[in-house]
C-alpha cells in the first residue's frame, strides 16, 4: 500500500505506457542485481537471427539460410512441444571463414541482453558460454577426467544462472585432448544422434544440422572489407570525424594487396576442369592487413581528430594508389557537404 492505495492502483494511475515503463525498469533492475531473469530469448528467435546474420556475415549466404532454417525448426518445437530437444549445430570449414563469428552473432541475436566483460569495455550476450580447445589440450598437467569436470562445472554454473538457456560454443575442438569431448562424438557421427538423460530417462537428440562454411573467394573478401569499413565509420562517427566516406574501388583495391594471400584450387566435375581462387586464411588477414594499414595512416596524418571533418578515401586506378582528403563541414550542415578538400595522404598500401 502507498498512501492508502494498492500497488495495482498506483500502476494504473501511470496509464498503459507508464505502467509498461515501470515494469521494464523493474525488470532491468532485477537483471542488474542478478536476482532477475538473466538470459531471456528474444520474442521471435528465427526472424532475429536471420536478419542479424544477413546484416553482419558476408560470403556465407547458403550457410546463413541453413542456420536460419535449423533455428526455425527448433523454434517450432520450442513453442509447441512440452519437452523440446536442444539444437546442435556443427559449424565446419577452413580457417577464417567466419565460424566463431557466426556463433557469437547467433547468441547476440537470440538473447535480449548483454553483459560487460570483466576488465574490458566490450559486452557479450548473457547466455553465451565459450569453451576454447586451447584450454583442454594439455594432458600432462590436467588428465582427461579433470578437463571433463571443468567443462561440467562451468556448464552447470552457467545453466543455473541462465535458467537452462544457453548458446554453448566449443571452439577449435581439434585442439582438445582426445576423449575429453567424447560426449560430442555421437553428434558428429553418421547417425547424428546425441544421447543424454533427463529425469532418469534416456533421450536422443537429432544433430543432423551440420553447417559447412565454404572458403572465401576474392569477391567475398571485397564484401567483407566493405562491411568492416562501414562498421569502422559508424564506430567513430561523431567522435573522430563527421563522416568517413569510402569511395568506389577502395575495397576491391584492398582485397588485392599482398597482405591478403590467395590459393588456387583445381577440381574436375563431370569431366570439366574447374579452377577457383580462395583466400588462404579467409577473412583473418583483413584486419591485420589493409585495415591495419588504413588505421595507421589515419592516425598519423589526420590527428588531431575533428568531429566536424569529413574524410574521403579514394582509389586512383591509373597509379594503383589511395588518396585521403579531408574537409570541414559547414556550420549548421547536417550532411557531409563541406568546404574545399585538402589532401592528407597519397600512396600505395602493401
Automatic annotation (TrEMBL):
Residue ranges of coiled coil: none
One annotated Gene Ontology cellular component of this protein: cytoplasm
Pfam families: AAA_5
MF terms (GO), sorted A to Z: ATP binding; ATP hydrolysis activity
Residue ranges constituting the AAA+ ATPase domain according to the UniProt record: 85-335
InterPro entries hit by this protein: AAA+_ATPase, ATPase_dyneun-rel_AAA, ClpA/B, P-loop_NTPase, Torsin
SMART domains the UniProt entry points to: AAA (SM00382)
Family, as annotated: Belongs to the ClpA/ClpB family. Torsin subfamily.
Protein name, as recorded: AAA+ ATPase domain-containing protein
Organism in which the protein naturally occurs: Thraustotheca clavata
